[in-house]
Amino acid sequence: MTNGALFLGLDSSTQALKASLLRSDLSVVSEIEVRFDADLAHFSTKGGVLHGPEGSGEVFSPVMQPVEALDLLCERMKAAGWDFGSIRGVSAAGQQHASVYWSQSASKILGSLDATKPMAPQLEGAFSRGIIPNWQDSSTKPECRAMTAAVGGKTELAQLTGSSAHTRFTGAQIFKFRNDDPKAYAATSRISLVSSFITTLMCADGEVKGIDESDACGMNLWNMSSPTRGWAQPILEAIAGKDGAEDLAAKLGTVETDGGRVVGNIGRWFQERYGFSPECVVVPGTGDNPATFLSLVLRESEGLVSLGTSDVVLVSTAAYNPHPEFHAFFHPAMIAPPSVQDTSAREGHGQLRYFNMLVYKSGSLAREHVRDQYFDKSWDKFNEGVERLRPKTADDVINRTAFWWLLPDIIPAGAHGVFKYEGSDAATAKRVEAFEDVGAESLAILESQMLNYRSRSGAILSGEAGSVTLSRVYATGGAGKNPSICNIMSDALGCPVSKSVDWDAAKGRWTDAHWNDCSVGVAYKARWGWERHVAAQKGDNARASVPFDDYIAEIRKARKAALGPAAASAPGAPDEEGVRNIVVPGPGAPAYTKAISWWQALEARALSEME
Ligand code: ADP
Ligand code: XUL
Fold this sequence. Notes:
It contains 21 helices and 25 strands. Helix 13 (about 290-295) crosses helix 18 (about 515-535) and helix 17 (about 485-495) packs across helix 21 (about 590-610).
């Protein structure tokens, strides 16, 4: 198939390596994946990972797993007839925090791959560590404590690196590796994140590519405070000692501060073996959550609520407002000034932008528990309670709420237990075992979860809980399909709930987008990087520094015009190109604005009543 210029996005996740192929109008041509457990069964992983000894908290995957997966993925893309020669840009998403350790021979091996052979057997000697610690690893508690102490506390660490210490974050993982296996640490030439690892493989030119700045924020190692952005000296010293700090910084390498910079061309190995064009460029990979953020092109004050096994909330901001409760990251598609140190040079190159990530354990797990306990395992019955009892007018008063912390939660840290209250005064509200009207059980958990997201996203946006609302929120994940959940989300958050939609040319209608967000998000970035690269070659400086959001909006507008009036008036047509508001706040929404401080007081009360 020939499609004009094409763009490739990869996603090296915990369980699979996925690829999305996009046309230059950003429509998705096709997707292919390699699933680790099923397709690479000889690694014996379950859910893509292996576990250390019982009680160790160690979770990891074999370093050769993604390399073999890349070989197999290439074969599958070829068998499917993907037009490699038309691909002009590639970028990769990777599971966040997870790190890859290169040996001293890595450069030589990467620079001399034989295109007549698969990549994996040739890379056997390229690593100083046989495993990739996974983000689910929790074996690094002592290292987290030492890093926190080194900067004087968790608030200080969050201020410096965007997050308080987390066992899965790369800094603690490197620290543990150095403690456990100092010889292998010493034999490490460079350390990559999964995203920069895949970027390095795609270039295969003898150079280990730099870590992307947005992804670097998931390491507890990157000093995010402007203008001193760089590897955080006190943390380097905590991990490697005063004498080893410089060496550790060298192992970590230079960070890519421009998400659309061309860091190389597609490797000769890919050109000779699969017919990729030498013109195809590679732009920095980024983390999977930053990549999802890009796929939705979240603008300032927009958010994402992902309702998967656990709930994750992303909030896009222009201000750095870190807090130990959540994670702050740099926006994954910033344009770097000529020098990171020189902030004045950033003028005309876009400003610093951030996104914040809140991770909750009590997401679908808790909702499912309530459904099973009170609603015969039926989402329809669960929804019936929600619809019957939800506020219908601005005068309705919310006077019931419930906190379902079945597992110790992350936000609020360590919260556990089930707490239900009835009464419109938080101080005197009655703690109850169960609500009299069983229908209130489903409404109470949803309202409580959504008021939590509103309260904390408001604080991120304004520094003051609940006073500012997100301007739009995207709903993703399994529970995002539930219309009643989306209704409460919209009313409680006080903003439209939106979804990405795609034009189905064969059926002549709009459908919810079913593509893999992470690989699509980085394919957008590859498209943007390619455009800027071509413009720079022509000396068109304005075009070479076009911001990501503007550029994607431009392409979407052109696509809308190209699809014509029939698509614009077809059922389910988007409100903006690519985005449809599935719910907007209804007449009951003001009841939630009035309930925020009441709900916050009850959350504090529940925490104080915890045994
Ligand atoms: P993962 O975190 O594994 O990617 P998904 O995004 O696929 O998870 O979401 C899975 C969750 O979605 C399940 O735990 C289930 O409770 C929830 N879910 C699926 N359908 C519905 C529904 N109709 N209403 C509410 N929750 C749902
Ligand atoms: C985020 C996190 C996970 C991984 C999944 O902090 O640990 O979402 O990024 O791949």
